[in-house]
From TrEMBL:
Descriptive protein name: DUF177 domain-containing protein
Top-level taxonomic group: Bacteria
InterPro entries assigned to the protein according to its UniProt record, in alphabetical order: YceD
Region (Disordered): 162-189
């Protein structure tokens, strides 16, 4: 599948948009860019590139893939499906159109040479849409959270219910020596 074009090549699509459809393998480059990515299946891409007579290129794509990422709790591999749309606007090097003419919510980029290469924008979109928390099926079903000596993970709900007051006897023993520095504060106890 082709994802890089010379701008002169795209000029012939001013009357009718260029239809894009196919699969491409980004596995190696995504794993190089993000150490958390264990594997990535080939990426399905569909969409259009619309070309304006003023050298403005409107790209609208639908991207779908499956990634293997480490669980946020156990680091076990977890398969994660991704399917999302994104659109960006590219201005040709000599386009008279200014970036300020577009809505502030639109992603607009001026090209630095006479090519439109979608590899990096597609990779960026895949990594940006990667979930921040990933859990195995067992972790989702289980109420048990990781714990260790003198620590445990709490859900937000349990954290808000917890009462984290401590008595002076339970204080950090390394701080006990500091009590002698302020004898006036100890008289009130």
């Amino acid at each position: 599948m082709k994802i890089k074009w010379a701008l002169n090549e795209l000029k012939k699509y001013q009357d009718e948009p260029l239809q894009i459809s196919g699969t491409i393998d980004f596995s190696r480059s995504l794993k190089e860019r993000d150490a958390d990515v264990i594997s990535v299946e080939p990426v399905d891409i569909t969409g259009v590139i619309e070309v304006d007579k003023t050298s403005v290129y409107y790209v609208t794509l639908r991207v779908s893939t499956k990634m293997t990422l480490p669980s946020t709790r156990s680091l076990e591999p977890v398969n994660v499906s991704q399917s999302f749309s994104f659109s960006e606007v590219y201005l040709g090097v000599h386009s008279p159109v200014d970036e300020s003419e577009f809505d502030k919510n639109e992603i607009v980029e001026r090209l630095s040479d006479e090519t439109l290469d979608l590899r990096k924008p597609i990779e960026d979109a895949i990594l940006t849409n990667k979930p921040t928390q990933v859990f195995t099926e067992e972790e989702l079903k289980s109420e048990k959270l990781p714990s260790g000596k003198n620590w445990k993970v709490l859900t937000e709900e349990k954290y808000s219910e917890a009462n984290f007051t401590s008595s002076e006897e339970e204080g950090d023993p390394r701080m006990a020596i500091l009590k002698d520095l302020f004898p006036d504060n100890n008289k009130n106890d």
